[in-house]
Every structure is written in C-alpha cells, then in structure tokens.
Amino acid sequence: MRLLLFAGLRGERAALEAILQSAARWGECEPVCLGDAVGGGDEAGTLALMRRKGVLLVAGPADRALAKQPGALPASEVAYLRAASAPRRLVAGGKQFLLTWDPAATDPRAFVVRPGPETPVDERGATLAQVASSRGEAACLLLDLESGARETRIVSWDAPIRHVE
User: Fold this and answer.
1) CA nearest neighbour of 82 among 65, 62, 61, 67
2) 52 vs 14, 124, 145, 151, CA distance in Å?
3) Structural domains in the chain?
4) Contact 165, 16 (CB under 8 A)
5) Could you give phi then psi for residue 153, rounded to 5 degrees?
6) pLDDT digits over 74-103, tens only?
7) Is the pTM above the cut of 0.85?
8) 156: helix, coil or strand?
9) How far is 77 from 118, CA to CA, in rounded Å?
10) All residues at 6 or more sequence positions from 75 whose CB lies less than 8 Å from its CB, including other chains
11) CB–CB of 19/157 below 8 Å?
C-alpha cells in the first residue's frame, strides 16, 4: 500500500484537485491530508470532495476549530471533520509510521511525517511544506508502507483546474 501525503490545503479546492489528478497518474495510492484542510478558501467544497474521494484527514487545529462552529458547514462535512483522526500510527512491513499534523512531533521508534515550512526527508521522517495558494505548488510524499520507500513529488498548477468529482 502506498500513501500520498500532503498538508495545509486551507480550503484551496484547486490544490486538492491538482493533487488528486496527479495521484491518479502516479498509480494506486491512498491520499492523506496531514491537517488544516480548512482555513480560508472553499472549505465546504474542499471537504465535500475529500469525503467523496476517501481522503484520510489527520485533523489539524483549524479543522478541529471549524468542526466546533455551529452552522459553519453542512452536517456531512462537520461529521467528516469530527471523524478525522488524531495523529495516526501505522505498522507495515515491520516498520512504524506516525502521521501527524503537529510540526514538532517526534518519535524515536517511528518514521514521522508532519507538516512544516520545508520538505526534508531523512531516515527518521519527513516534513511536508504546506500548500501556499490556489495557484502554485504543493509538496507531496509518496510513502510505500511495505518497503518504506519514499519519494517527494511536486504538484504544480497555474491555471484553473478541471473539477474532479
């Protein structure tokens, strides 16, 4: 199983569409957002697309805050946010993985993937740069849970994206 990890959409549906289109070209992988899927753009539309496409959301602070605001979103998107996991621990191929929104998270026993200002990848973990705007770039990490292989990929968009439904 391969995961496609990204972070910090902040409601930028165009970024999510570009990431999902790229994932379809890269082969079978499960999309995972490491927090702050909401926070300024088309939050309801972004969350609806994430829910329909089966994107696993590891809830960040903005996600949890919006889930507590009455009437801010349709009930289905509130339920999706509330069901979002806290940091997720996985064991695959004899290796431990920690998927978290916390940019300061560490775990000496696990490969830690978290959002942050850069995109370094080393033997202990990876820090993913967050999506910057509706026209730009997003760093994604393809993580093979069986082999532990990891590859940083950049998704770019500079024009309106065809809607992914």
Assistant:
1) 67
2) 16, 32, 24, 26
3) 2-157 (3.60.21.10)
4) no
5) -125, 145
6) 999 999 999 998 899 998 888 899 999 998
7) yes
8) strand
9) 29
10) none
11) no
